[in-house]
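Entry:
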Amino acid sequence: MDIKGKVVIVTGASSGIGEAAAREFGREGALVVLAARRVDKLESLAQEIKSLGTGASALVVQADLSKLEDIQKLVTQTIERFGRIDVLVNNAGFGRLDWLENLDPVKDIQAQIDVNVMGVIQTTRQVLPLMIRQRSGSIINMCSMAGLVGTPTYTIYAASKHAVHGFSEALRREVKPWGIDISLIYPGGVVTEFGQHAGIKRKTKATTPKFMLLTAEQVGKAVVKLVRRPRRMWVIPWLWSVTVFLNRFLPGLVDATTIKNFTIPERADELAEK
C-alpha cells in the first residue's frame, strides 16, 4: 500500500511505539489520526507532523480506549474529517507485572483486559464496516512476545496478548476477501515508558539482553513496513523466534529453565517461610 495521503489511526499515540509510528506515517505523508488520553502530548506531536513538509496532516482525538463511547467518537471524528479510514494501528495498551495474587482485581486485572483486549476488539469493530465498504484496509495489531511465550509475573498481560493473537488470526480469515489485511507484530523488549508503569520489581538480573532491546523508533518503522507489505506475523528482533520455537516444541524445557532460573530465585523468601 502506498502510504502518502492515506488515513491512518494510531491509538496510544502519546508516547512510545505509538508516537514513533505516528511520526513515521507523517514522514510518509499520511493523514494521521492521533488517539490517546494525554491530549497535550498529542497536540505537540500533531504540530511536529504538520511541520514535516511531506503533505501530512494530523487530527487529535482524546480517547480512553477502555470506553466504547470514546472509541465511537474517534471513528466518527475521523470519518467527518477525512471521509475514509485506510489503516488502523491498534497500539494502545499497558501492563501491570506482579505475581497474580498481588494484582488488584480491578485496577490491574480488569483494566488490562479492558484496554489491551476489549480496546482492540471494539476499535476494530467500529472501523471494520467502513473498510468492508471500501473493500480495502490494513489493520496492525500490536502484540508482544508475551502473546507467544508466557512468563511469570506477566500472567494478565500475557493473557491479553494471547487474546489479541487469537482475535487477529480469526479476523484475518474473515476479512481477507474484502481486501483487508490483518497483521500482527511481536516486539521483544522495547525502551519505552512501559517499564516505568508496569511495577517491575526483580531480585534477579533477569532482563532482556541489551543487544536484543529495540527502540520505539525501530518498532515504529516496522509498523509502517507492515502497511506497505502486510504479513501474518512478525517477531522482532528475529532472535526471539528461537524462544518461540523452543516454547512450542520443547515446552517442558522452557518450563524447567524458567522455574529454576527465575521463579524460584525471585520467590526464595516466600518459599522459605513455614
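The mean pLDDT is 95.
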